[in-house]
């Protein structure tokens, strides 16, 4: 007789927004774990997400909660995914860890969505809370699990680096026309603008590509310096600031106090071979194209790779005579429904969510520690804060640098680039 299968790992989802639905979709391709519970401050939203999980058959009798402690104490919940807005990150993780520390609940692990905190102090607090509760932990950075990166990185290191030397330059970008939810546009709630929102992806993707398989990027790459630029390019213009105010009432006035919608940073590291290497990261909320664009390049002495998400799996064409409803059925952050458009057939798989959640659930089930841990999240946050500081001061920031108490001016709503004297002179 065949040995009986172990019960699937029970997953509790905390948060009910866009990213939570993306994660739930990914479970259609994951074995060995089921979604058993959902939580949101709104019980109706938690129930909607639970129904969505049942509709996709990634969980049965999924229980909805509006209380975090109740979800964590649910006997069917073995691990939790924290997918709530940035400004709630610390309080949510504290609530989870308190249940575990008190003995009222037992978990095999906790996974926390990017970024780990709005600043370095928050990121460190999240990691300390989880370690204090004795939990295994994962940092949910999907791009380092994306097949376009994992496979090409494997080939670059096996066929290129092994024969001609380690790679020396990674260029990574992420661009789209702006976030879905209002809180992303609130620089205090989000912790900044596009640098904090998207560069966490591009930076970690760059570190991943420059690090040999099986090694920790934080151990292989020692940061040396960073220069950076942030700007308000699109959403601070009168027309688009007015549109933003109409779409998301109550959000700060982007004409005077915007979040940055453009950011670039150049990081210099020394790699494990003692060679200088560079990550160039660029992110934007001002890209208007078919939809979200992710691009990656890796350069080495005798090899290179490039990938672009908008190459898609197929293309479709709809003429101007077709009346189309707006949607995101072709790809994330879709901006058009007519003309020649790319199609990404399985976005959760293409963007890395399937591989990410498969890996983490299997490691948690085996009692192990995922490689992309909360320590990775802390390291990324520290590097992001250094970029903000470099952009604010217009200097080259050299490591090590103490950013323990630093909060970017953007996040304090003290960044006013469009009312600065230079801006006034430029428009005079």
Automatic annotation (TrEMBL):
Coiled coil: none annotated. It comes from the Bacteria. The keyword Oxidoreductase applies. Keywords: Oxidoreductase. The keyword Metal-binding does not apply. Residues 10-136 form the Gfo/Idh/MocA-like oxidoreductase N-terminal domain. SUPFAM superfamilies: Glyceraldehyde-3-phosphate dehydrogenase-like, C-terminal domain, NAD(P)-binding Rossmann-fold domains. GO terms for molecular function: oxidoreductase activity. Residues 164-300 form the GFO/IDH/MocA-like oxidoreductase domain. This is Gfo/Idh/MocA family oxidoreductase. It comes from Streptomyces evansiae. The lineage of its organism: Bacteria, Bacillati, Actinomycetota, Actinomycetes, Kitasatosporales.
């Amino acid at each position: 007789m065949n040995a009986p299968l172990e019960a699937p790992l029970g997953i509790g989802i905390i948060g009910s927004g866009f990213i939570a639905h993306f994660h739930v979709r990914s479970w259609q391709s994951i074995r060995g774990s089921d979604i058993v519970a959902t939580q949101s401050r709104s019980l109706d939203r938690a129930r909607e997400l639970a129904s969505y999980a049942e509709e996709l058959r990634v969980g049965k009798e999924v229980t909805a909660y509006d209380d975090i402690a109740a979800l964590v104490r649910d006997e069917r919940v073995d691990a939790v995914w924290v997918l709530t807005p940035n400004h709630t990150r610390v309080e949510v993780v504290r609530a989870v860890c308190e249940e575990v520390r008190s003995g009222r609940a037992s978990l095999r692990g906790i996974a926390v969505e990017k970024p780990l905190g709005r600043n370095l102090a928050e990121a460190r607090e999240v990691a300390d809370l989880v370690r204090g509760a004795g939990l295994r932990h994962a940092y949910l950075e999907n791009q380092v699990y994306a097949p376009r990166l994992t496979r090409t990185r494997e080939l670059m290191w096996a066929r290129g680096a092994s024969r001609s030397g380690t790679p020396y330059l990674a260029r990574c970008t992420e661009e789209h026309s702006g976030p879905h939810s209002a809180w992303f546009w609130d620089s205090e709630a989000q912790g900044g603008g596009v640098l904090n929102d998207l560069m966490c992806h591009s930076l970690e993707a760059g570190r991943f590509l420059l690090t040999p398989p099986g090694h920790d990027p934080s151990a292989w790459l020692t940061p040396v310096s960073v220069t950076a630029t942030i700007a308000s390019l699109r959403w601070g213009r009168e027309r688009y600031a007015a549109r933003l105010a109409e779409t998301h009432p109550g959000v700060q006035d982007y004409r005077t106090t915007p979040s940055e919608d453009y950011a670039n940073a150049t990081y210099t590291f020394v790699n494990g071979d003692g060679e200088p290497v560079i990550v160039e990261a660029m992110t934007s909320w001002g890209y208007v194209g078919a939809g979200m664009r992710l691009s990656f390049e890796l350069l080495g002495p005798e090899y290179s790779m490039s990938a672009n998400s908008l190459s898609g799996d197929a293309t479709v064409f709809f003429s101007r005579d077709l009346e189309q409803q707006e949607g995101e059925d072709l790809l994330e952050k879709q901006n058009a429904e007519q003309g020649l458009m790319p199609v990404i057939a399985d976005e959760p798989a293409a963007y890395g969510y399937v591989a990410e959640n498969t890996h983490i659930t299997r490691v948690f089930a085996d009692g192990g520690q995922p490689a992309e841990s909360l320590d990775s999240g802390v390291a990324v946050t520290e590097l992001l804060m250094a970029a903000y500081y470099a952009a604010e001061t217009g200097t080259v920031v050299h490591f090590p640098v103490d950013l323990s108490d630093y909060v970017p001016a953007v996040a304090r709503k003290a960044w006013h680039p469009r009312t600065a004297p230079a801006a006034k002179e430029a428009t005079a």
